Amino acid sequence: MALLAAALAGTPGATAAADSDAPPPRGPEGASAVLDGLKTYGQAVLRVGDGPVRHIPAGLYEMRVDGGGTLQTYGVGVTGNAQPQTRYGESGWSGSPLAGNGEAGRIRWVLEHSYPQLNDLAGLAKAAGAESLTAESAAAGTQVAIWRLADGAQVEAADPAAEKLADYLQREAGLLPEPPASLALDPGAVSGPVGTRLGPVTVRTGAQSVSVTPDAAALAMGVRVVDAEGRPLTTAANGSRIYFEVPAGTPDGTASVTVQGATKVPVGRVFTSGVPAQAQIVAGSSVSVTAATATALWPQAPATRPGTGTGPTPDATPGATPGTTARTAAPAPGTGAAAMLGARSTPASGYSPEEGRLATSGSSAATPVVASLAVGLVVLGGLVVLLLRKRPLDGEEGA
Questions:
Q1: For residue 11, is it within any domain?
Q2: Least confident of 114-118, 212-216, 280-284, 384-388
Q3: 58: which residues sit within 8 A by CB, 6+ positions away?
Q4: 3-class SS shares of the chain: helix, strand, coil, % to 5
Q5: Which of 98, 278, 320, 369 has its CA 20 to 30 A from that of 7?
Q6: How far is CA 137 from the centre of its chain?
């Protein structure tokens, strides 16, 4: 936390969440729903390698959206066996089994140009070259085409008309871009120092209006959710910018804001359940309740002690770098005489590579001088001892 606070203290305003190799964390976005089950379907034949042929249902599912609304979906994976009453959440392609799949745009084209988006079954049958189509055979043919594009599966519709539709859709499918989220906040997380306005967080939605609700923690700390002019926000629209206004002195903390509205979930959005093979892709939507959440983080700026910081200190040497002291200042306790000797021998002009080499080896520029003096003292002492021992012998010879 201290490192993050130090990094943010020098930021003039709020910033998005810190850069990293991974994308910033996001809160829930869009709709959440529970799978009711397969509602409109026919049969398909699946071949997996050299294994036995499997007959599987293929068609349109329905989902109940939390808070109100319904979705019609197809399965993304042919081996999914999606389970009724499983809970799902809205996701972009990058967070689903379609991540990195070059056919994802073609799957969206299939959804936009087939049942249930096209309810003219006679016109659809004519385009596919089929005699006629029912809702069940149209759903089966559409599902088969999606499986082929998503998985490269060897699957065929059991009904000849449904198989003609699958072939037509796979052959004609063009590329469409990924659809936007039904409701999202961008970015999903912001951070900055206290006493500033953190943001902006931009609302992305197809809803005409969304409610804006800060969490209880934000309210308890006096954090306000405001617009660019500092006015409190209770509602917003597509493109609105939301800010967290954090009063000076607020303790380190986090808060969140949730926006909620009602809109149709775009065709081509994916719903995931944590089991990749059971992912669903939206083929139709009623007006449904959607929500998104963004969070804010505000660390305290580090306290400044005397003699530190960005300004010059009382013990600084004129001309030295602000925030530093003279090279010849007294060493800290426990530094030792060797460090003092190294400090005194440092030229005023600054650091040199030779000094670095000596410091690394534990020596200094004075080491050769000290060694020479020591050798000289040893020799001189030896001569004195010899003279003192010789004088009594000379006296004895004189007697």
A1: yes
A2: 384-388
A3: 41, 42, 43, 44, 139, 140, 143, 144, 147, 155, 157
A4: 30, 30, 45
A5: 320
A6: 43
